[in-house]
Design a protein that fits this description.
Length: about 160
């Protein structure tokens, strides 16, 4: 027998392994794609702009309660916007100080102190708006507000 008679058998065996490897690789990629679809990341509720976050929150409330929250936000829009702008500006000053050469640790501490103060002022404005809105909301609306973002584990279901 010659070598040429055995060559097709070797090629046929290699083809089988190649086909099997290709099939396994395709199944792997299909599995990865399905896993990514099934485990898609939860929607992000965080946005730097408080007005965007409040609108996302209001969309999850009962309609009448959402209108109350939106009304309070609109009534206090100027104060919220000013407090938010001061806070964001203070945060930017931290970034600016970190970029300066030579680095000044005292300036960084001062910028951080300013950021803490502006954050507290911003929180007080927002919390005051929500406290006022909550007094006008239904119990269902307040519960939805307490359980926000949607899917959040509450004390009653953590056991």
């Amino acid at each position: 027998m010659t070598v040429a008679q055995y060559a097709p058998a070797v090629t046929r065996g290699s083809s089988r392994w190649l086909l099997l490897a290709s099939l396994a690789l395709n199944l792997f990629f299909v599995g990865v794609a399905l896993a990514m679809i099934i485990r898609a990341p939860a929607p992000s509720y965080w946005d730097r702009d408080v007005f965007v976050r409040v609108e996302r929150l209001a969309a999850t409330l009962p309609p009448a309660d959402a209108d109350i929250v939106r009304g309070q936000i609109n009534t206090n829009h100027a104060a919220i916007d000013a407090a938010q702008a001061k806070y964001h500006g203070a945060r930017e000053r931290i970034h600016d100080v970190l970029r300066r050469e030579p680095f000044d640790a005292a300036a960084l501490r001062a910028a951080m102190t300013e950021t803490r103060a502006t954050r507290q002022a911003f929180d007080q404005v927002i919390q005051g708006v929500f406290a006022t809105a909550a007094t006008q909301m239904s119990p269902a609306g307040r519960t939805a507000l307490a359980d926000w973002p949607p899917g959040r584990k509450t004390t009653s279901n953590r056991q």
